[in-house]
Amino acid sequence: MEWIDVPAKGLTLRDIRRITRRDQAESEAIRKAVEEILANVEQGGDAAVRAYTKQFDGVDIDDFLVTPEEIEKAVAAVGPDFMSILEEGAANIRAYHERQVEKTWFDTFRPGVRLGAKFTPIQRVGVYVPGGTAAYPSTVLMDTIPAHVAGVPSIAVFTPPAKDGSVNPYILAAAHVAGATEIYKVGGAQGIAAAAYGTESIAPVFKIVGPGNAYVAMAKRLVFGTVGIDMIAGPSEVGVLADHEANPAWIAADLLAQAEHDRRAAVFLVTPSAALAAEVEREIERQLEELPRKDIASEAIEKYAKFFIVKDKDQAVAIMNLIAPEHLEIAFSDAEAYAKKIVNAGAIFIGPYTTEPLGDYFAGPNHTLPTMGTAAFSSPLGVYDFVKRSSLLSYNKEAFEAVADKVIRFANVEGLQAHGLAVRRRIDE
């Protein structure tokens, strides 16, 4: 954990990037390994995916597609109580994302000229759901439901199998609730390759969304262009703005909630109260002892926890806007007033009772968010990520003739005579 006393003049963006920089997961070794996996799956199809599944997941898979019987067993295994929680969470997520739906429009702008935009759902998408140290049914809901709301007709979930060839029942149950059309027992970079290129048994997709480890992130980066992707997501992070009235035990708990995600997770506390920061630090040390994932959380706290001590709340907001955190909690006594001053954050949690886990699971806004400062220029996953926009243009004869000479002049200035001739022929004939 590092404390930073912010000078009265503040810090620059360069300062913040240096202070909050994390070890880069993108090594040349990872790139080379992933490039080889991608090439082999593109050429070798199912056989290559099976070989990598055996190598990395320790299991032989004959049929990658999860059967309806496996889904039924999963639903029974998680039980009616958790199914009702999934259904309620899914309803909240669906209701929020339905507000994001855009409709095609086509209007008259000038006499004889109609212009507009046509919104069309992407026809097939892949949703990657990580395995590893934890199961993430919440990710299934968050990444699948917006696609379903957007009208995507084919949604394929890709997730690593366990060593017995099964898929975590909570993931299967969530995929069932969210409206996935297919679920494949394929994970890692080979799963991204199968989604992007297709195999004999897996049809390729047009876009891949969802988080993953460094190999998955690299694979998504490398297949971009062949398919679309949502973002290159780094390890989780949270920033907290707090004043002297905030509850240090609650703040510590919220910081640890992010730290337990990943050894490279980052947590940021920005406060004008050094006394509060000291209490939060003591609470972190105390609460760490209670956590089953103590080893992961303690390493993240040791390496990537940053406490910024500032002169006042306005400077705190300025610092947090430079950090541009994935999650931002505002624990000021007048939180809502300061929420209006936030310009860079993936999701903003306002007030002491709006703890970040509400957003992870239940509130409705998406939890797939920009990380590593990218909230300064990008947005949470949403319905808009599963829709394409096409421009609509229509000129009648009179409207065309009114601007034809101007278009020809533009074309000639740019040295594109064929463009001008395409207009001229219509005038001449």
UniProtKB/TrEMBL annotation:
Organism in which the protein naturally occurs: Megasphaera massiliensis
Keywords (A to Z) from UniProt: Amino-acid biosynthesis, Histidine biosynthesis, Metal-binding, NAD, Oxidoreductase, Zinc
The family this protein is said to belong to: Belongs to the histidinol dehydrogenase family.
Catalysed transformations (reactions): L-histidinol + 2 NAD(+) + H2O = L-histidine + 2 NADH + 3 H(+)
Residues involved in NAD(+) binding: 128, 190, 213
The name this protein goes by in its record: Histidinol dehydrogenase
Name of the coding gene: hisD
EC number annotated for this UniProt entry: 1.1.1.23
Taxonomic lineage: Bacteria, Bacillati, Bacillota, Negativicutes, Veillonellales
Cofactor(s) this protein cannot do without: Zn(2+)
InterPro entries: Ald_DH/histidinol_DH, Histidinol_DH_CS, Histidinol_DH_monofunct, Hstdl_DH
